[in-house]
Amino acid sequence: MSDKQVTQAAARSEATTTTDPEPTPSTSGDDTTPGRAPDDHGPRGSNGDDRAVDLAMPHLGQIEQAFVERWHENATGCFSSGHKFCREVCPVTQVTRNENHTPTAFHANVIGLEKGHLSVEDVADDYVHCTQCGGCEVRCPNTLMVGDFYRARTETVKVVRAMRAMLVDKGLDREKWKVWNRLTDELKNEPVLGVEGEQPNGQAQVRDWAAGLDIPIGGDTIMFVDCEAAYYRTSVPRATAQILRKAGVEFGLMNEQWCCGGPAAEMGYVEQSMRFARHNVDDWRRSGVKRIIAIEPHDYVHFTEDYPAYFGDEFDFEVVQIIDLVAELIRDGRLELVKPIERVATYHDPCRLNKRKGIHEAPREILRAIPGLEFRDVDRVTQWSYCSGGGGGLPIEKPEITAEISRRRLEKASELDVDLLVSACVWSERPLTAAGDEAGIEVRDIIELVAESAGIEVGGRTRA
Amino acid sequence: MTVTASLGNEVVDRLNEILDEPGAVLTSRSSRFNRARVPAPFPVHRWEEFLPDVVVLPRTTEQVSRIVKLANELKVPIVPRAGGTGLADGAVPMRGGILVDVKRMDQVKEIDLVNNTVTVGPGINMQTLNRHLRPHGVIYPDDPASYACALVGGRIGTSGLSLLGARYGHTRDLVISFEMVLPTGEVIEVGDGGGRKVRKSSTGYQLKHLFMGHQGTLGIVTEATLELVPRAETEFAAFFLFEDYDTAYRTFSKLAKSGLATLAGVMLFDPEKVDYLRRDDEAYIVQPAWVKAVCAVSLLGTRVEVEPARDVVMKLGRSLGGRYIGDEIASGDWAARHDRYANPLHGRDKNGKVIPMSWHCEDAAIPYSEVPEVLRKWHAIARRYCEQYEIFDDWGAFAYTNAAHKPWGDILLEIDMGLWEDRMDEYSWQAFVSLKKEIAQVAIDHGGSMSSCHGATRAGDAELVPTEMGASWEVMKAIKRALDPHNIMNPGKQSLDEAYSDGHRS
């Protein structure tokens, strides 16, 4: 069993234990917890006054109670050690240097809620400051030393997501996330081309990127095209489709592809995420789909962790990450890279591949197979502290932090004297490209490079 | 002085004027609660008592100076905080006030490869700094267990210990000079004499050592010039196993007195530590039952030095019957020395039942000759508390060579205790404080110091600072009074309030 299979199995089993992807209970119903007042404002009144907390009072509302019960043990593991190894790898904290934004604070806040010191309102802003990259989890000494034995890790990403779900439930969600998710709900895809004015978003354009490629609909295997790729960086799905075709991999597209629902889940809109997931699974089922090729790492996480948690055993699809597949095609000689690419490049480990899913060898194998390319690598562990800032809804709510994270990433690349930064995550490529323009370093997707080296005229565009 | 209730909007407005940046003056409950504690066991039931009133995130020395002057004018407590990873509450506000969080002062200002110095802000972490330095073939070798999270400002504040101290020195040896904002707001440079990059001087008083380990009670560090040493070409670690503690203890001394210049440190695990690792640390590779104690040693340097020294170490380590653990475990365990900082997060109650626990660590400096007797007394105290209260577990002791470049004399003796923090109430918190006091008293009685590297800043230790300092306590109080006339700098620590009683209050 490969590591990825183990991860998938673990994600499935999580379906029976986690409360995270469940729709959060409504606050308006009867309070069924004996001895607890149905006060959904936490320890203090909603007017935010600072009067002393009476710890003898049942201070938690029903939603908070469920939240702290679910996360108490995980939070205690951090609170009681509190070493903060996570701080220096956290891409957001590296920029803001604000202790409120550290993963440690995300866990301490759980204890603060539990003890009646803090309300959800008090901590809401803290949890916006996270890209859900998972660097804190892999760097946590509790994961490294104790977790090795139990195959367990400190869970911070799930805590952030559960807190955001609680914010949505309590109407404390952020304004820009609200707009983004409302538009996603209306369009059925993310408004990646902008949230104002007449953008050519929507289902009518969802397959525009494939113009002239004559890709069939449905079939045993489908390629799931992320919103950013479908509408913005269309060179990525075009390169992917043409590589697969050249290597003789049969695949189709969905009948009606909606957003995967992952970003909604990341920002706490759990109900919406589940609704979108339901649509997509039903669409796959109708077309007899068995296998999904995820061309984007966020989608891959969502399909291998959230979908199985939402649907349990019903979710029996095979999910393939494009990087693994392309590495295999090159290894097996099914895809020949013939055209030299005379560039000096380094590789950006996308967080969701490296830190979340442990996929770091395949992309390096691919880059080393490209003729002419001088590859200056930075190891995956050093890259635990790297990020583009493009995930977890951060660029929507805090674009200035995303931009600074990307600027620093390019600064690291500059030190290597490269003229090309290669990523494998289309969501990272927009902020990285903007920073690359400043740094004089081009940013490309690994699949675009593979296509070029395979002699394919890709077409599409890499920026607006 | 209690201002918690009275610190009003005017202070916040004036701080905002000084900082002049959105989000640099924080008053939210979350901002304050998250800066009330450090990793040491904490009286969660009294969390509210340790809150700062306001948090500031300055970027410049000038801002820090103006903030301190404001605190002085208003006679408001002011507490510096760097990483907040100390183990003795140095950065925990005892009386509210302004908390100066220096994490934004994390720049590498100058790398001087000619004079081998690097100048940094106090908010930078050593591992991060060393990543900057790597391309230059040099390293700043301050290497505590908290290497990945401690910040330079806190290392100076506590006068920390490096696990490579026998080879390269500790924080006080590796920090050449630093800039300090005094409790009245003046900015001074302290080092050896006047030059920022001078390592040895006979001009004036040795003020660097006065401010090193200031624990926030004498000001705020705003910049530091640090030593750069050539990156070691190779390292070597060996672990030796023993059937009894005494032989391991004597072997420790043989290794410490080997005279090898590349010796980075020697370590000792006592039988209680081996027991604990065996019973509760899943990451520990279990050794045979006859193993009762472990002695470990590491070397760093050039190949021409380390390779022959390795043979000396192997010979000395085995000379009294120690058995070598094997290359893989030795190098692996040594490499994991920072991540080892994490404890298993569980221990046992007196009936052997597994319970979730936090880690507490005592850190006395003890003359080598006294170590067996101190350990005997410490474990007896620990046993008594474990019997009497349900929240304690004895996790055994480590010993490390304590002095820079002179590893043969005194020892950092560390007893680790598990604490059931979740069950902490006032009754058990007071028991913890009294346990600490008893342990510290033993260290003093045996000619040691109660803290080698964390600081005597928390309840249980703080009361004994005058005892340990003896007649020099009067000098210490006079210095504190002279530099901090209004007792605004981190008040309530180390019994320093005494400097302002007995008719001394200004």
From TrEMBL, chain B:
EC number: 1.1.2.4
Coiled-coil ranges per UniProt: none
UniProt-listed Pfam families: FAD-oxidase_C, FAD_binding_4
Region described as Disordered: 486-506
Listed cofactors: FAD
First-tier enzyme category under EC: oxidoreductase
Keywords from the UniProt entry: FAD, Flavoprotein, Oxidoreductase, Transit peptide
Domain FAD-binding PCMH-type positions: 48-231
Family, per entry: Belongs to the FAD-binding oxidoreductase/transferase type 4 family.
Protein name stated in the entry: D-lactate dehydrogenase (cytochrome)
Natural source organism: Prauserella endophytica
